[in-house]
Amino acid sequence: MTETTTEAYNTGLAAQEGEATAKGSGNAATDRFKTAQVSADTTPERARAIYDDLFAAFRDIINKHQITYEEYNVLKSWLISVGEYGEWPLWLDVFVEHDIEEANYNRHEYSGTKGSIEGPYYIPNSPKIAWDAEMPMRDQDREVTPLIFQGRVTDLEGNAIEGATVELWHADDDGLYSQFAPGIPEWNLRATIVPNENGEYAVKTIQPEPYQIPSDGPTGWFIKSYDGHPWRPAHLHLKVTAPGYRLITTQLYFKGGEWVETDVATAVKPELILDPKKNEETGNNEVVYDFKLDKED
Ligand code: MBD
Ligand code: FE
């Protein structure tokens, strides 16, 4: 690796006004994250134990790979750039969140629907829509595949639950998320679905496209530095909950879709893969997925 990080980003900085850029989506994700109050009750003893292990891991890697001063300085420069581009939410959620999600799942004995990572593009308080409504979406300027996404939200025994909600958000057919790319209506493809009294939902949306990590920022540079690919498979994001029940944050994928086997964010699980079928009469894809909620611990 000879080029410095800053040189590598110049193309991105020259992007046209109104175009989706690493800096635009990164800083929007950082601004959104900063609106959430975050805290943890970590004691000094626990903090010390974690830092000791962290620095021991650094020491092992530095010695094992004989890290050079040039590499150390590129790292420093890269870390600074990740902050400048607002890409910490992106980089962390792509490369770290899946292990946090797994560890927190494995500490419990849950048997409801599996979770997956939240990612950097969630917005709370999306508009409520009826159980059988259409997702808020802009007029499509080219052909898209409509998707009828339906199923039930129940407890572990299959009973409907009072007050259940299904928050759904996903990228459009360009792989772009509203509020993180320019020129997209505020709540495009974001809604809070309210299931009916039988726990049923059946909404109309569109098939999302795979998501490409922006190539013009430091996360894109990081991926190129190891000859990796920057793709996530097409996916739906969900938060499903009801009073007294565990909130499930998850994602659903599409069988046979590109990148399902090699998600850059390592967030695909076999239980989370949909297999929609085309309804020849309507031309819509249709799929059924049921959510089962564990009780709150
Ligand atoms: C996404 O759409 C996403 O879901 C994650 C986890 C990371 C980057 C983009
Ligand atoms: Fe996503």
Automatic annotation (TrEMBL):
Annotated region Disordered: where? 1-28
Against InterPro entries, the record matches this protein to: 1_2-CTD_multi_dom, Catechol_dOase_N, Cchol_dOase_actb, Intradiol_dOase_C, Intradiol_dOase_core, Intradiol_RC_Dioxygenase
| Cofactor(s) recorded in Swiss-Prot or TrEMBL | Fe(3+)
Which EC class is this protein assigned? oxidoreductase
Q: Per the record's keyword annotation, is Metal-binding included, yes or no?
A: yes
Q: Pfam families in the record, alphabetically? A: Dioxygenase_C, Dioxygenase_N
GO molecular function annotation: catechol 1,2-dioxygenase activity
**Segments forming domain Intradiol ring-cleavage dioxygenases:** 149-177
Q: What is its EC number?
A: 1.13.11.1
Keywords attached to this entry: Dioxygenase, Iron, Metal-binding, Oxidoreductase
The entry sums up its family as follows: Belongs to the intradiol ring-cleavage dioxygenase family.
Q: Known PANTHER family for this protein?
A: DIOXYGENASE, PUTATIVE (AFU_ORTHOLOGUE AFUA_2G02910)-RELATED, INTRADIOL RING-CLEAVAGE DIOXYGENASES DOMAIN-CONTAINING PROTEIN-RELATED
- Kindly provide the name given to this protein in its UniProt entry: Catechol 1,2-dioxygenase
Organism of provenance: Corynebacterium guangdongense
